[in-house]
Design brief:
The longest helix has 21 residues. The protein is globular and about 55 Å long. By secondary structure, the protein is α+β, with helices and mostly antiparallel strands. It folds into two domains: 125 residues, Trypsin-like serine proteases (Thrombin, subunit H); 142 residues, Roll (Nuclear Transport Factor 2, Chain: A). It has a six-stranded antiparallel β-barrel. The chain has a four-stranded antiparallel sheet with strand order 9-10-11-12, covered by helices on one side.
Length: 286
Amino acid sequence: MNGQVIGISNQYDVALIKTDTLAGTPPLELEMQESEVGTEVIALGSPRGLENTASIGYLTGLDRSFVTEFQYENVYQIDAQVSPGSSGGPLLDGKTGKVIGINSALLTSDTSIAFSIPMYTMTELLESWSNSPMNESQVANTFYFYNEFDTYEEYEYDNEAENHPIVFDEESLSNFIVNFRASYEVALQYEDFSFIQDFLLYDSEAYYELADYLDEITGKGMAFNFTSNQVTNIDSQSDRAIVSTFETFDFMNAAGEWSVYERIKDYTVVTDEYGNYKIAYIEIYQ
């Protein structure tokens, strides 16, 4: 279905999408009170693109709070399986069928523990977006590294002019690489290239190298434990930017042997035809 983002938050891990295809479809009923520990729940989602996958479990904790790139306050803890691709799916009360939460996060050190944002805590925010939708510029400015300066139509028009300048912003470049790095960790954990594919320039050296690497390590039982990743320098040029990082991580090979690595990486970042940042080349210094 085609849809349009009409609300998105850089504080909470939620967004609201409007699609005309579902106009007039009766929605699932919402639970507007806090659910109790022990409630039987059903988590719906599309892990690995498998639509409408249902997993059953229980609500095992209340009032869990933590901070990642988003702020999670008083969220539900559940033991129903929530795999990558299920985020954003509804958490249902197993008896009433009401939506009690929005599946949002997985504890990577223990995949039997997942977290769901209570629906009643987000209703006011979602209703505000529904009543006063954000426009394209407001959405783009919330996460400006996706499409920082232009909407698609503006970029297509301006690109017809000679010497169209490409503008790289250091903060948005840094955010882009940090978000790529977080997605790369998930891609390594689940041995799935799709988690990073959209960050890479199609048909570039980085695209094929990372696709081949993930294919190479699949099924070999390797483990990666990333301990730090810092952007150390950004060199903006006329048609590209070089973002330098310093990272440390622990690595377990197929034989079960652990090693500690420190690496300096240079990411060559360009823009595609829509003005989105894309990684074209990665230089690694041991």
